[in-house]
C-alpha cells in the first residue's frame, strides 16, 4: 500500500479516529459527572466549633438537608473507580469529629467522653491528625459480622478513610478520591479498617494507583500512619493499638473489596433487611433520597423539620493543654 491510495488510508484511519473520539467523550462525560458531584454539597453549620452544640449538616444544591451517612452516593462515577469521601477531621487539627449515628440526618459533631469534648493529642513528630480523616458514605462496618481475615467484628461505623493529598480539607467537605489500599486496626477487639485514598485532583493522583506507589512517592507515610494509629491513645493513658496482618497495608484490590462489602452491609441496613436497632447498636437511618429505603422522609416530615437552621459561630477557645506535645518512649519512634 502506498500513500497514493487515499481511500485505503481513510479506511485505516477512520476507525482509529472514531475510537479516540469515543474514548475522549467517555472521559469528558465521567469528568463532568465527577465535577458536578464535587460542587453538589455545602454545609449547614450550627453553633461554634469546640462546643457541645456544634453540628455540621450537609445540604444539596437545592439547600435540602442530606445525610452524609446515607444520602451521598458512595461511587462518584459509573465505573466505580472514583468514590465520594466526607471530611470529618481536616489534617493538622485535633478535635475528634465524626458522623453521628445517634442524631437524625447524621450531622458531624465532636465526640465526647463523660460529657467532655474529645481531642486527639499531639505526639512527636505529629500535630493532630496527619491526613484529612473522614468516612465513606453508604458504608457500614457491621458489628454482627466477624471478618474472616481479621477474626473480629466490625466497629459499627462508616468506613474510616485517610486522604493523603496535599490540600487541607474542611469539615463536611465532599472530596472525590481513589482507593490505594487499607490497614486493619484492631481497636478494642473490633475490626476498624483505615482505607488509604488520594484526592483525584491532587498533583500526585496520576502517579498513585496502588499501595506500593505510596511508598515510592511518599516515602515514610505508611510507616508513619501505622505508628500514629498504634500510639495515638497512649497520651490519654490507654494501651497501644494492634493491627491485623502485622500492620501490613493491603493493596487497592483488597481495599476495594472491603469497601464493597461494607457498602453491601449498609444496603441491608438502609433497606430494612436487617434492623437499625438491636441490643448491639442503634443507628438513625432517616434519609432524603434513598429510593428503596423505608426510612426515606419528605421535607414535610417532623424529622426533617426538626433539623436546625444555619447558626454558625466563631470557634470557641480550647484548653491550652490540647497543644501539648507528648514524647512516647518507644525505641522505634
From TrEMBL:
Keywords: Cytoplasm, Hydrolase, Magnesium, Metal-binding, Signal. Pfam families: Pyrophosphatase. Residues 1-24 form the signal peptide. It comes from the Eukaryota. It is found in: Cytoplasm. GO terms for molecular function: inorganic diphosphate phosphatase activity; magnesium ion binding. InterPro entries: Pyrophosphatase, Pyrophosphatase_sf. One of its GO terms (biological process) is phosphate-containing compound metabolic process. It catalyses: diphosphate + H2O = 2 phosphate + H(+). Gene3D superfamilies: Inorganic pyrophosphatase. GO terms for cellular component: cytoplasm. Its cofactor is Mg(2+). The keyword NAD does not apply. PROSITE patterns: PPASE (PS00387). The keyword Hydrolase applies. Its EC number is 3.6.1.1. Belongs to the PPase family. This is Inorganic pyrophosphatase. It comes from Synchytrium endobioticum.
Amino acid at each position: 500500500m502506498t500513500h497514493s491510495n487515499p481511500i485505503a488510508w481513510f479506511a485505516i484511519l477512520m476507525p482509529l479516529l472514531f475510537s479516540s473520539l469515543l474514548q475522549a467523550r467517555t472521559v469528558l462525560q465521567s469528568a463532568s459527572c465527577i465535577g458536578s458531584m464535587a460542587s453538589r454539597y455545602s454545609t449547614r453549620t450550627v453553633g461554634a466549633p469546640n462546643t457541645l452544640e456544634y453540628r455540621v449538616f450537609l445540604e444539596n444544591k437545592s439547600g435540602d438537608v442530606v445525610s452524609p451517612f446515607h444520602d451521598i452516593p458512595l461511587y462518584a462515577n459509573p465505573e466505580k473507580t472514583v468514590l465520594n469521601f466526607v471530611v470529618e477531621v481536616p489534617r493538622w487539627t485535633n478535635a475528634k469529629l465524626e458522623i453521628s449515628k445517634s442524631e437524625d440526618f447524621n450531622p458531624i459533631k465532636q465526640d465526647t467522653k463523660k460529657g467532655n469534648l474529645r481531642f486527639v493529642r499531639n505526639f512527636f513528630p505529629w500535630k493532630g491528625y496527619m491526613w484529612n480523616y473522614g468516612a465513606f458514605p453508604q458504608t457500614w462496618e457491621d458489628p454482627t459480622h466477624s471478618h474472616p481475615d481479621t477474626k473480629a467484628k466490625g466497629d459499627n461505623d462508616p468506613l474510616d478513610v485517610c486522604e493523603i493529598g496535599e490540600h487541607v480539607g474542611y469539615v463536611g467537605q465532599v472530596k472525590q478520591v481513589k482507593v490505594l489500599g487499607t490497614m486493619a486496626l484492631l481497636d478494642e477487639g473490633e475490626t476498624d479498617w483505615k482505607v488509604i485514598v488520594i484526592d483525584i485532583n491532587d498533583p500526585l493522583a496520576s502517579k498513585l494507583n496502588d499501595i506500593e506507589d505510596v511508598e515510592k512517592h511518599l516515602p515514610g507515610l505508611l510507616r508513619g500512619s501505622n505508628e500514629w494509629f498504634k500510639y495515638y491513645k497512649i497520651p490519654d493513658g490507654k494501651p497501644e493499638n494492634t493491627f491485623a496482618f502485622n500492620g501490613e497495608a493491603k493493596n487497592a484490590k483488597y481495599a476495594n473489596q472491603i469497601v464493597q462489602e461494607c457498602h453491601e452491609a449498609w444496603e441491608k441496613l438502609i433497606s430494612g433487611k436487617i434492623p437499625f436497632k438491636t441490643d448491639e447498636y442503634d443507628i438513625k437511618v432517616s434519609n432524603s433520597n434513598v429510593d428503596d429505603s423505608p426510612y426515606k422522609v419528605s421535607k414535610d416530615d417532623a424529622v426533617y423539620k426538626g433539623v436546625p437552621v444555619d447558626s454558625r459561630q466563631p470557634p470557641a477557645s480550647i484548653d491550652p493543654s490540647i497543644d501539648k506535645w507528648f514524647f512516647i518512649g518507644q525505641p522505634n519512634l
